[in-house]
Design a protein that fits this description.
Blueprint lengths: L6 H4 L16 E2 L11 H9 L14 H11 L6 E4 L1 H14 L4 E5 L6 H8 L2 E5 L18 E5 L11 H10 L4 E5 L20 E6 L12 E5 L1 H11 L9 H12 L1 H24 L3 E2 L6 E5 L7 H10 L2 E2 L1 E2 L9 E4 L3 H14 L4
Helix pairs in contact: 2-8, 3-8, 4-5, 4-7, 9-11
């Protein structure tokens, strides 16, 4: 901390990202990255990129990318907003729609960036505890709340919300903005994009980091009513008109356009996920049914604690995610890797807890 820090910043507890270690080579199953490379069309776009164009500013509207997304999502370009990662877009959503004291509801166990953005932008967090079965308790949403953020499927549980439940919430709360954070929707959930055509109080935020294998490029987009999109554009242009560079716009458009590769990768990850859940359950783990590219599991308590397993896996060259927090300290979130990586994970676990 410096002596020049503002009071607001000095009091904020920032989001803590997953480990990106450099001390050794790991089987990296801790940050929900895609185990497969981006589309071959992305490789082609990289090879054909005109490097001399980098002397020019990028298109502030990312028109090429918007056109690709609008086609893939069957919406108009006026309903698409693009920026540097879904995190940045969600931050803009908090700034534009919940800043200055508005109440926004979200579960006690969900993406841990939400309370940080409340602190940064002056929103009032209304925490709604998950039900004992880990599902979101929509009936406990405070009446008259300015909005609600639904991570769907939720992180770290992987549990998805049905589209009809999102629609009911939007219909019952027409003066509240329902934000659907769909970072993991492509691995088994039901997207609410279609609902944005009928409800002006739903905004869907997506990322190319997970299902499109572009975590290193940082690209996100939102789909909503045209008036909500205009507000996001105004928010973006109030601090940085060029949130996506020329190179990233081109490779992101190429990734979005390759539907066949996208669907193939998602199918492989889903199959690997389901097999991993079955294997872990067979050796005594509790595992929630996941619709994401990760699983939420609890090791057999008679054998080992979640924290000790996390530490021992790390020492054996396998990284998973652990939080020493109420309600989830007995659980681990494990990203889905390749079949070979998941085989290594299970073998190391069996070795650690002495299961034949």
């Amino acid at each position: 901390m410096s002596r020049f820090d503002s009071k607001a910043i000095s009091e904020i507890a920032p989001y803590v990202a997953g480990e990106q270690p450099k001390d050794m080579k790991y089987v990296k199953l801790n940050t929900n990255e895609n185990p497969y490379p981006p589309s071959p069309k992305v490789e082609k776009a990289i090879k054909n990129f005109d490097y001399s164009s980098m002397r020019l500013y990028p298109d502030p509207d990312a028109s090429v990318l918007k056109a690709a997304i609008s086609k893939a999502e069957s919406v108009n370009t006026e309903n698409v907003f693009c920026s540097n990662s879904s995190d940045e877009i969600l931050a803009m959503v908090f700034m534009a729609f919940f800043g200055g004291g508005k109440e926004v509801a979200f579960p006690d166990i969900t993406y841990s960036f939400y309370p940080v953005w409340c602190d940064v932008f002056g929103a009032k967090a209304k925490i709604v505890p998950l039900k004992p079965d880990w599902n979101i308790d929509f009936e406990k949403i405070p009446a008259g709340c300015g909005g609600m953020v639904v991570c769907n499927p939720n992180a770290p549980t992987g549990i998805a919300v049905k589209r009809e439940r999102i629609e009911k919430t939007a219909a019952d709360n027409r003066d509240s903005l329902i934000v659907c954070d769909e970072a993991y929707i492509d691995f088994g959930g039901e997207s609410s994009v279609e609902l944005t055509k009928h409800y002006d109080n739903i905004i869907v935020v997506k990322t190319l980091s997970k299902s499109r294998s572009l975590a290193g490029a940082r690209v996100g987009y939102a789909i909503a009513n045209a008036d909500l999109i205009k507000t996001l554009e105004k928010t973006k242009n109030s601090f940085n008109s060029y949130t996506l560079d020329r190179f990233t716009i081109e490779i992101a458009a190429a990734a979005v356009e390759d539907e066949q590769y996208f669907e193939s990768c998602c199918k492989k990850i889903i199959g690997t996920r389901d097999r991993a859940v079955e294997e872990l359950r067979n050796i005594g783990f509790e595992a929630l049914d996941s619709s994401a590219n990760f699983i939420f599991v609890s090791p057999p308590k008679a054998k080992i604690s979640a924290k000790d397993l996390y530490l021992q896996l790390k020492s054996h060259g396998v990284l998973v995610r652990y939080w020493d927090k109420p309600r989830i300290s007995d659980w681990l979130r494990i990203s889905i890797g390749t079949d070979g990586e998941m085989k290594t994970l299970v073998e190391k676990i069996k070795e650690i807890i002495a299961i034949d």
